[in-house]
């Protein structure tokens, strides 16, 4: 049964939705893949950017450290300082030189010289943009300071570098905070005896301000010492936490323990973790100083550090930039895509357009396929498709060695339906019959409309006996159906199982012959073409005169009886194996006699004054014209025997004699044919 319009509409929308989703996902996938490339490019760009920032700042810090060592060596080798040591120049002169130096360089909090006891002898401070010498009364003892203790033990041409920390004066961290790195070296007299220690305190704020300046631009750069403490860039007030007992646990190492394990083992590198992107590089002042001085006169200088140095780390937190983190580029690209409603709308419109085009194309394509495959009026397979189905069924039966059978059924007295009710009702009858047939057959069977009111039912894997059962069940269902206008509609069935070695045409002809015999046997029945099938009626089918057909005119009745006799002779010869030439002669004789009968009948009616003679005469001409055309078609093979003999019986002999001639029976005084029904015509078969 065909789907209703609502179900078809639902299927159409389902198909449209399926294509929309598929196309939307396809184009969305392309967009996400494009975004994925952008995410990967963004990651590479960001990684490169952070490498550049870290490398440039590292270079600045290293240059500062090298310059500090060079300044210390300059001060140590100064003629004024040498003269002061030899007591050839006063302290005031040295202080003046250091004051000018500090004011010009502006990078050192203090320049001081301490004797071997650790007491300051000469000291110049740089504060608030001014360099000033410290009065003798304000000079301090620094023998307990680690810087002095380490430097006093060094050999000649060795320099000590302190940790990077905050300046402490008189036991308190100086406010405002003064980040400082101290460089100190022992000073030797004439006899190479150590006379004291020369110290410069580098203004660490130069480095810190540089990092913080970059941080304001990138918000990511940090400086961390070798114990994992922030020196700059913590962003949480945790810088210099090692200087404050209450903050000693606020470290980079504590906040990012896994990342710290990797950072402290490598010189430089980059890693991406759930916490973000880390770009790091180790700063080793001793190494850089030696590399810088190795080709000069100070190549023998050795810088000894209080620690290994520091780590410059760029940390781009996860979430700060969507391309950062351990999340896959595809997932990030998908999130980007979903945050772009304009793209979603554009792709939705494209998907809707293409979905509509595809569905319309498929709809039209299905219509074309339906035109090529199905009979548009009934929904059955059309003749062309049916021929192909039969061919495939034959091939399948030959491969599987299983039987295949065919039914051919034709509606009984269908011409009368068209003549009485019109072709619109006739077409509706065909639709109802086709629907009943398609619902009645089995799942693997095929119903084919071969033409007009004739249908073929193809039965794979079915022998003759089972085919007859199927045909009889279908016949019963058709008989039980009541058309709202026409009433009961019956059909006659021919059935045949394909024989081995039999061609498709030969098989079809046997089924066609069986159909005619079913019609000739009384209609509304099944005839099987198999010779050994006991369920088929006998082949000796004859027309029998009925007393109800008497017209009241002896000559007309005698001629009607002769027409039936000649018709029986033609039928007998055709189905008893006579040659077509012999049947053609008998047909010619029958048609000539019918023509003669029509002439006599018209003459009698004219003489009797029958009012409907002109219409009756016109019907005679139509019947003869159709009869000659059907005869020629039968002899040439273009009209099937069943169709020809059905015309001969239904239209030319009985149809005209009962349907048309009965109109003048009462006029001639004959007994009226009361309560005439189409089924009464079955009374002429014995």
Entry keywords:
22 strands; rod-shaped; 19 helices; disordered C terminus; alpha+beta; 51% helix; disordered N terminus; eight-stranded mixed β-sheet; five-stranded antiparallel β-sheet; 686 residues
* Average pLDDT metric: 84
The major pleated sheet works out as:
8 strands, mixed
Tell me roughly what share of residues is in helical segments: 40-55%
- Please state the structural category: alpha+beta
Radius of gyration: 58 Å
Coarse morphology:
rod-shaped
> Which regions have little confidence, pLDDT < 50, spanning 5+ residues?
1-6, 534-540, 670-686
Distance between the termini: 39 Å
Q: Could you tell me the number of beta strands?
A: 22
Percentage of β-strand residues: 15-25%
Number of helices: 19
What would you say about this model in short?
By secondary structure, the chain is an alpha+beta fold.
């Amino acid at each position: 049964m065909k789907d209703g319009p609502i179900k078809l509409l639902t299927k159409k929308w389902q198909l449209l939705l399926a294509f929309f989703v598929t196309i939307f996902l396809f184009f969305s996938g392309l967009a996400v893949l494009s975004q994925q490339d952008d995410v990967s490019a963004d990651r590479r760009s960001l990684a490169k950017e952070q490498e550049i920032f870290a490398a440039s700042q590292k270079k600045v810090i290293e240059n500062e450290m090298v310059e500090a060592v060079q300044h210390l060596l300059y001060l140590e080798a100064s003629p004024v300082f040498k003269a002061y040591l030899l007591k050839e120049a006063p302290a005031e002169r040295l202080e003046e030189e250091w004051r000018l130096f500090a004011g010009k360089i502006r990078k050192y909090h203090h320049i001081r010289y301490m004797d071997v006891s650790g007491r300051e002898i000469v000291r110049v401070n740089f504060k608030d943009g001014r360099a000033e010498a410290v009065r003798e009364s304000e000079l301090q003892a620094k023998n307990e300071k680690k810087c002095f203790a380490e430097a006093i033990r060094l050999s000649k041409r060795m320099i000590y570098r302190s940790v990077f920390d905050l300046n402490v004066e008189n036991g308190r961290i100086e406010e405002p905070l003064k980040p400082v790195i101290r460089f100190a070296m022992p000073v030797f007299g004439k006899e190479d005896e150590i006379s004291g220690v020369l110290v410069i305190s580098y203004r660490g704020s130069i480095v810190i301000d540089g990092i913080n300046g970059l941080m304001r631009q990138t918000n990511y750069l940090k400086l961390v010492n070798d114990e994992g403490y922030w020196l700059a860039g913590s962003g949480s007030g945790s810088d210099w936490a090692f200087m404050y007992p209450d903050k000693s646990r606020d470290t980079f190492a504590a906040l990012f323990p896994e990342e710290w394990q990797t950072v402290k083992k490598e010189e430089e590198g980059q890693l991406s973790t759930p916490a973000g992107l880390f770009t790091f590089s180790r700063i080793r002042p001793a190494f850089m100083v030696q590399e810088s001085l190795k080709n000069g006169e100070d190549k023998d200088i050795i810088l000894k550090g209080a620690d290994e140095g520091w780590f410059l780390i760029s940390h781009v937190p996860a979430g700060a930039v969507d391309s950062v983190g351990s999340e896959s580029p595809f997932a990030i690209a998908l999130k980007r895509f979903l945050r772009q409603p304009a793209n979603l709308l554009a792709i939705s419109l494209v998907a809707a357009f293409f979905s509509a085009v595809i569905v319309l194309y498929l709809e039209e394509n299905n219509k074309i396929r339906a035109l090529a495959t199905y009979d548009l009026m009934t929904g059955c397979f059309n003749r062309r498709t049916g021929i192909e189905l039969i061919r495939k069924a034959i091939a399948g039966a030959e491969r599987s060695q299983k039987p295949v059978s065919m039914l051919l059924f034709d509606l009984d007295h269908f011409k009368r339906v068209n003549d009485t009710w019109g072709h619109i009702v006739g077409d509706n009858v065909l639709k109802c019959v086709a629907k009943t047939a398609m619902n009645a057959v089995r799942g693997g069977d095929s119903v084919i409309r071969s033409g007009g009111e004739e249908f073929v039912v193809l039965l794979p894997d079915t022998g003759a006996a089972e085919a007859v059962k199927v045909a009889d069940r279908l016949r019963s269902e058709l008989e039980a159906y009541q058309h709202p206008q026409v009433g009961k509609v019956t059909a006659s069935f021919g059935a045949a199982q394909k024989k081995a070695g039999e061609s498709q045409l030969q098989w079809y002809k046997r089924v066609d012959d069986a159909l005619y015999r079913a019609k000739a046997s009384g209609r509304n029945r099944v005839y099987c073409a198999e010779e050994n099938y006991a369920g088929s009626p006998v082949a000796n089918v004859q027309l029998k005169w009925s007393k109800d057909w008497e017209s009241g005119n002896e000559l007309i009745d005698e001629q009607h009886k002769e027409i039936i006799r000649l018709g029986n002779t033609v039928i007998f010869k055709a189905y008893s194996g006579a040659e077509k030439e012999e049947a053609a002669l008998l047909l010619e004789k029958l048609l000539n006699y019918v023509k003669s009968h029509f002439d006599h009948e018209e003459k009698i009616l004219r003489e009797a004054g029958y009012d409907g003679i002109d219409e009756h005469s016109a019907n005679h001409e139509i019947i003869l014209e159709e009869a000659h055309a059907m005869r020629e078609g039968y002899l040439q093979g273009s009209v099937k025997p069943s169709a020809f003999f059905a015309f001969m019986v239904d239209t030319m002999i009985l149809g005209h004699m009962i349907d048309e001639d009965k109109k003048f029976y009462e006029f001639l005084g004959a007994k009226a044919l009361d309560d005439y029904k189409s089924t009464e015509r079955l009374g002429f078969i014995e």
